[in-house]
Amino acid sequence: MGKFSGRRALVTGAGAGIGRATALKLAEMGAEVFALSKTQANLETLKQECPSINIICVNLENWTDAREAVKKILPIHHLVNNAGYAEVGPFLEATQECFDKIFNVGVKAMLNISQVVTADLVTRQIRGSVVNLSSQAAQRALKDHTVYCCAKSAVEMMTKMIALELGPKGIRCNAVAPTVVMTDMGRVGWADPVKARDMISRIPQGRFAEVEEVVNAIVFLLSDESDMVNGHSLPVDGGFLAA
Question: CATH top-level class for 8-242?
């Protein structure tokens, strides 16, 4: 369980859901973990659950504040860009506010935090790994998910660009692309049982993913076991994209 001993890991969106479970798993596996969230109450309960985890409360939509907060904890060897925002609705009803919120949290902040972490690794000449949270929505159009699908497609291209430009400097970047996971964010789009049944019917394994299954994929891509995996998106989708 000491696979990440001596390593420092930052998880964004770590107050709940996949991010919280990832932070706990990395701490269990020996990493010095920094959990970032905009919600102080969630961070406090996480700290109570695992006192070794360091908590950082900052809103990733604030470019400067987020950048300065991360600079204070460098170096970071393993970065998990998990923070995201979901809002659904028909294409013709998509708003500027929805677009800005989803892209600011899920794409712009990812660029910002990744720049800070990886630039420092390059300067120090230290190897590192980044995992970005994507979605099956990056590769398959989902009704009422126009802005979300577009944002996750941007995440996958950013993943490739980081891998392309920083791979020669010893920094790997991959993405994990889950199917629906019934976290609080997942329930935004899939709480309706009729809609959920329709999606499940398109997944060969006949169910949604569990949080732990996504975390296991993240841990693999962060670890040395995936050292030759770079610039890829790993579906955790029960075969949805194969159907």
Answer: alpha beta
At residue 1, the pLDDT reads: 64
Which of 24-56 are b and which e, b meaning 16 or more Cβ less than 10 Å from the residue's Cβ? bbbbbbebbbbbbbbeeebbeebeeeeeebbbb
Q: Return the active site residues.
A: 148, 152
Q: Answer yes or no: pTM beyond 0.70.
A: yes
Q: Return the domain boundaries, the chain.
A: 8-242
Q: Which tens digit of pLDDT belongs to each residue from 68-115? A: 999 999 999 999 999 999 999 999 999 999 999 999 999 999 999 999
Q: What is the 3-state secondary structure (H, E, C) of the chain?
A: CCCCCCCEEEEECCCCHHHHHHHHHHHHCCCEEEEEECCHHHHHHHHHHCCCCEEEECCCCCHHHHHHHHHCCCCCCEEEECCCCCCCECHHHCCHHHHHHHHHHHHHHHHHHHHHHHHHHHHHCCCEEEEEECCHHHCCCCCCEHHHHHHHHHHHHHHHHHHHHHHHHCEEEEEEEECCECCHHHHHHHCCHHHHHHHHCCCCCCCCECHHHHHHHHHHHHCHHHCCCCCCEEEECCCHHHC
